[in-house]
Amino acid sequence: MRIEEENNGVSASRKHLVFAYYVTGHGFGHATRVVEVVRNLILAGHDVHVVSGAPEFVFTSEVQSPRLFIRKVLLDCGAVQADALTVDRLASLEKYSETAVKPRESILATETEWLNSIKADLVVSDVVPVACRAAADAGIRSVCVTNFSWDFIYAEYVMAAGDNHRSIVWQIAEDYSHCEFLIRLPGYCPMPAFRDVIDVPLVVRRLHKSRKEVRKELGINDDVKLVILNFGGQPAGWKLKEEYLPSGWLCLVCGASESQELPPNFIKLAKDAYTPDLIAASDCMLGKIGYGTVSEALAYKLPFVFVRRDYFNEEPFLRNMLEFYQSGVEMIRRDLLIGHWKPYLERAISLRPCYEEGSNGGEVAAHILQETAIGKNYASNKLSGARRLRDAIILGYQLQRVPGRDISIPEWYANAENELNKSIGSAVTQRYENGPQAIECTDDFDILHGDLQGLSDTMSFLKSLAELDSVYESEKNAEKRQMRERKAAAGLFNWEEDIFVARAPGRLDVMGGIADYSGSLVLQMPIREACHAAVQRNYPSKHRLWKHAQARQSEKGLKPTPVLQIVSYGSELSNRGPTFDMDLADFMDGDKPMSYEKARKYFAQDPSQKWAAYVAGTILVLMIELGVRFEDSISMLVSSAVPEGKGVSSSASVEVASMSAIAAAHGLNIGPRDMALLCQKVENHIVGAPCGVMDQMTSVCGEANKLLAMLCQPAEVIGLVEIPTHIRFWGIDSGIRHSVGGADYGSVRIGAFMGRRMIKSTASALLSRSLSDVDGSVIDELEDDGTELFKSEAILDYLCNLPPHRYEALYSKILPESILGEAFLEKYGDHNDPVTKIDPNRTYGVRAPAKHPIYENFRVMAFKALLSSATSHEQLTALGELLYQCHYSYGDCGLGSGGTDRLVRLVQEMQHSNSSKSEDGTLYGAKITGGGSGGTVCVIGRNCLHSSQQILEVQQRYKAATGYLPFIFEGSSPGAANFGYLRIHRRPSSAAVSSPI
Fold first, then answer.
1. Which end of the chain is more exposed for a tag (fewer CB within 10 A), N or C?
2. Does pTM surpass 0.70?
3. Among residues 695, 733, 744, 833, which one is catalytic?
4. How confident is the model at residue 417 (pLDDT cuts 50, 70, 90)?
5. Cα–Cα separations (whole angstroms), residue 736 to 574, 770, 932, 946, 970
6. Cβ of 308: how many Cβ atoms within 10 Å?
C-alpha cells in the first residue's frame, strides 16, 4: 500500500522540514524500525534523507514516496559475526577502525558539506556516532533513536581485545555527547553518553494483511500449527529435515537460498516477503534475538523460540523483556543444529504472551522529532557537552548493575560499579536490597534476599518447590520412586517459615586434574549444570516430622528434639534411597561431636543411604571445625543437575550447595576459600574419597565463562583467566562411570606421594654427601648443582615445586616403575599423605604417578600463558597439544579408559579432516579429566558453528561405535560465592498444607 493513501500518523507541521536520518550498518533490525519513523515523518509532509548501508528495498518496499531519498553510505559497521551465532569482537573493532576511524576527517568534511547542501533541519541517528559530530560541525541539532549505543557494545569488546582499540570507545562517547537527547526504545541497554532521555513505546512495523488473509494466500488452514524460521545467515551446509517439526506442523523459512532444497513441511519465502504479516499469521517464531524480531514477537503476541548469540551484548536486555512478557523459550545451540526442535516448539505454543504496552513508537518518535526540528527544546540544558562526555567516559567503563544478573551480560559490566553509585538496568528488571520490598520471583514466592541472576535452572527449582502442593494429584502418572521423592518433599517444609536456597555448579577440568594434590596450578571452568539445596530450620516442637521419625522419638520417650530430614531428587537414576533422616544428637559422642572415622562408618552402614554423607556430612564438619551447635531441626531438599559419575564434580557441587544453604539459614559468614576447604573435609574424611580441593574451590569461587586459576598449595586462587572469544571448551561424557573414591585414583595418588618421599630421601642423601666432603672438592655428579637446591628438595612439600629439568637430571632414574607397599613401608616408613593409606600387600606404580604432576604443572603454566597470546592457528594448535600430552600422561599412570581414548581419537580425526583444514582448524585437542578412569573428556576448539557441528559428529560416531550417546557439557555459570543465597517466603495465598509421609 502506498504511503500517500494513508491518512493517519503525525499531524502535518506548520512548515516543510528536512530530516537527515542516519542508520547503522548492523543487520536489518535498525532499518526496519527506521522505516516506521520515516513513514510517519513523510505522512506529516516532510522530506527524509536516509543514509545507510542497508539494501534500498528495505525502505522502498514500505515507503514509496518522492519525499524519501536514499543515500547508500556505510559510516559504521556494527558487529562483525564470525558465523550466524557468534560475534567476532576483535574483527568488529578492526572493521570499525577501518570504516569510521581512519577516514574520520574526510567523513566529517563530506557529511558536514552534505548536510548543509540539503538544508537539513534535524539530524536523526540510529545509532551512527559520527552523525552526531557531523551535525554539530554543521550547526544542526541532532537526536538519537535507539535501544543501545556502540560505546556500551564496544567497551566490552575492548576489554576482551586489550587496550589497542580503547580510543574507539572514547571517540564514540564523544560523538554521542554532541547529541541533544535520546529517544529510547524498550529493551534498552545502558547508554551513558546520553544525559537527557525520552522513552517511547515499541517501534513496530504495521500489518498489511490479517492472519486469515496471509494463511489463505499460502493455502494453510487456520488450525495448522505454523512456525516461522526467521534466521538470517543460516549455518553453511545446514540441511533442514522433515522430522525437525512436530507432526502436522509447517515452517515458513525466511532468507533461504534459491538452491536450498526444503522438505515438504517447510515453505520457502520470497526474499522481499513482508515478514510482519507472516509473523502475525504464525503460531510461534524460531530465530535469533534482535530488536526487530523481539518487538514484532511482543507486539503480535507470538511466542519466540530463540538461540543465543555469543558476545551479542544487546541480547540480554531484549531477552529480559521477552521473558518478562512470557514470550520467550531458549533453544540450546546443539538442539538447533541436530533438529531437536519439537519440545521447544510445543513448549512455545503453551505460553501466553502478555505484552499489553504500546507499539506505536514510530508515530510517537516522529512527533517528537518534528517538534524538535520546529524548535521545541526537550533537553534539560543542565549539563554541558563537556560534562556529558566526562560522565559518559566514567559510566561507559564503570557501569553498575546487580552482580551476575544474567550470565550472558558481559562480565566487565556485571561486576563493576560507577562513581555515582546508581543502579542502571533494563526496563524490566529491578532489585531491592534487603529492604521491606521483596521481589516477586514467581506467583508463589517472594525473594527477601538475593537475586535469581537470570539463571533459568534456579527459576525451575523454585517452580518445583511451588508445585509440591499438587504432588498428590499427579501420583498416578509418576514413576514410583520419583513419586516417593515428591511426596517426601511435599511434607518437608513449613510454608509459614523462610526457606534458604543455595546453588553450586559442577566443573570442567580444563587443565590440572590429578596434579592438584601434588600442588599444581590448575585451570577449571564452572559448568552450566548445578546443584540446588533448599534449607529450612524450625523449632523441634514445630518441625513436621515424617511418620517413622515421629515413631522413633516416641519409642525413645523423648520430647521433641532436633531432627535432620533430607530429600534428594534423582534417586531413580542411581541405586540410592530418596530420603534420609537422623536425630542431630546422633552426631554427638558424649559432649563432643563424633570423630570423622565414626561418621564414615555411620554413613556406610546402609549402601543406599551412603549418599547422605555428602549432605549431612557438611553439618558435622561445621560442628567440628567451627564449633557450630545446631539446636533447631533442619529440613533439606537437594536437587542436582550435575550428572553423577561423569568426572564433573557432582559430589563437590552437592557439598558446596548443601553447606552454603545451611550456613545461610544459620547466619554463618564463611569466606569462599574456607567454604571450599570445609567441603573438601566432607569428601576426604566423611565420604572417604581422597580428592584434592580444586573441585570444591571451583564450585565456590568460579565465575561464568572464565577459568579459575588456582595453585593447590593448598588452595590459593591466583585469579580468573578470560577465555578468549575465539576459543571454546566442551565436555563429552564417555559413559564410563568415574569415581574419585575408586581404587585406581587412590593408588595413583599413593604412588605420587611415594615418589615424593623417595625424591626427598635421595635429595637428603645427596645433600649429606655434599656437606660431608672434607677436602672441599665436589663430587662429579654434583658439579653444577648447588647445595641450596638439595636443601629445598630434601624438604619438598609439593611434587609440583620440582622443575621438570631437575627431575630428569637427578631423580627420574632412581624412581622405580612400581613397588610393593610392604617394601616401601620398611624402607621409608610412611608416604605422608593424610587421606590415603598404603596396603602392604599391594603393588603401586611410582614413576608415572610422580612424573605426571611435575610435568602437568609445567603444561598448565604454559597453557595459561598461551591463552593470553596473540590469536593464531599456532596458538590453538599448541593449546590442543598440551591437552593431548596431559591425556597420554593419564594413560601412563593407569587412569585411562577405552571410552575416553576413543573420544580423543575421534577429536583427532576431526582435527585432521579435510573439512577442518578448510576452515583453518576447528577442534584442536582433547584430554581425560578429573580423576580419570572414565568420565568426561575436555575438548578445545575454535568458537564457531563448524566446531559445534563437529562436536555433534563426534557424539554420533561414538554412539555408532559403542551404542552410548554421550552427554555434551557446554556453557558456564557462576560459582556459589557469586550466587550467594536466596531467602524466600511462600506467599500466603499460595501456601497449602501437605501431609507428611
1. N
2. no
3. 695
4. very low
5. 14, 51, 10, 27, 19
6. 17
